[in-house]
Automatic annotation (TrEMBL):
Organism of derivation: Pectobacterium parvum
Protein known as: Uncharacterized protein
Superkingdom, taxonomy of origin: Bacteria
Length: 70
């Protein structure tokens, strides 16, 4: 698996599972592997790509967020 590029970081699968999305936020785009990021505060996020690892699924996030924003 390649290392994350600049402006990308890894979010554990559990983080996605524990989010409580609004009905308007649940509109995921699974066909192209992109999902809206669900955070408590509105933030700008481009796309999340699902990465299947032997352990579990995780999400790479392409955005200008920093880890302290989570």
């Amino acid at each position: 698996m390649p290392l994350p590029l600049v402006n990308q970081f890894l979010i554990p699968f559990e983080f996605w599972e524990t989010r409580k999305p609004n009905d308007t936020e649940i509109n995921t785009r699974r066909s192209n592997g992109c999902h809206p990021m669900l955070l408590d505060e509105p933030v700008k996020v481009n796309c999340i790509d699902i990465i299947n690892t032997p352990e579990k699924s995780a999400f790479y996030i392409s955005s200008n967020l920093h880890s302290e924003d989570i």
